[in-house]
Amino acid sequence: MLxxxxxxxxxxxxxxxxxxxxxxxxxxxxxxxxxxxxxxxGAGKSTLFxxxxxxxxxxxxxxLLDGQDITFLSEHRRARQIGRVFQDPMKGTAPHLTIEExxxxxxxxxxxxxxxxxxxxQEKDLFRTELEKYHMDLENRMKTKVGLLSGGQRQVVTLxxxxxxxxxxxxxxxxxxxxxxxxxxxxxxxxxxxxxxNHLTTLMITHNLSQALTxxxxxxxxxxxxxxxxxxxxxxxxxxVNDLLDCYAEKKKKAFDNDRMMLAxxxxxxx
Length: 271
Hints:
Layout: E1 2-11, E2 19-29, E3 34-38, H1 45-53, E4 60-65, E5 68-69, H2 75-78, E6 82-85, H3 99-107, H4 121-132, H5 151-163, E7 169-173, H6 181-198, E8 202-205, H7 209-214, E9 218-223, E10 226-232, H8 233-237, H9 241-252
Parallel strand pairs: 3-8, 3-9, 6-7, 7-8
Antiparallel strand pairs: 1-2, 1-4, 4-5, 9-10
Helix pairs in contact: 3-5, 5-6
């Protein structure tokens, strides 16, 4: 489904600030896989997502999605096939439009038709039915401007916008990190439901190690633009947070500094 081959991206090449954000990275995802990604700040997680989405092109390497080479495909054309939810609830929606208008805007991908400000009754009924599934009372607030919603509500609207017309790939970029714990748990519950019901191929960046090991079916760890750990199956099922930290320390041959390890050692931070 997704193949990233020898992906290389260098920023500020030839200067004192040269940074190899992706360093010959190889990644393969089968159809329907839900993979969590962990790694310290600067490991290459967001750079990988930006490269997949087409925010910028790779210096070297290749990206294939469902057999199609999208390495040099424009960002807006990739957006028809890739959904992305950001950490910031303010991203991904139009705050001055209502919930139903935002959903209608996303729904235009279905037929690739221009956006119409007037939302048809058939579409309203569809949006209401979908929103009802999540028990956040959003189906009764469809005329509310998205900018007036809470962060959790906005993330749910964004998730629905990304999946109303099913993408080939869903990217979740720390999409619960800015939410309070209770709301984050609710959004993750909804996320798992959407991904499972639709057999969506999904990549999710998280700093929460416990969440990384209990979400999806596979966990990969990035460091210095490379995958240094790839866990799945029984090996992953037996792995605890401390085991994961030990694996990292072994791979890096140095110990962790726990300055950002919060919530009983469940968060990943830079060494």
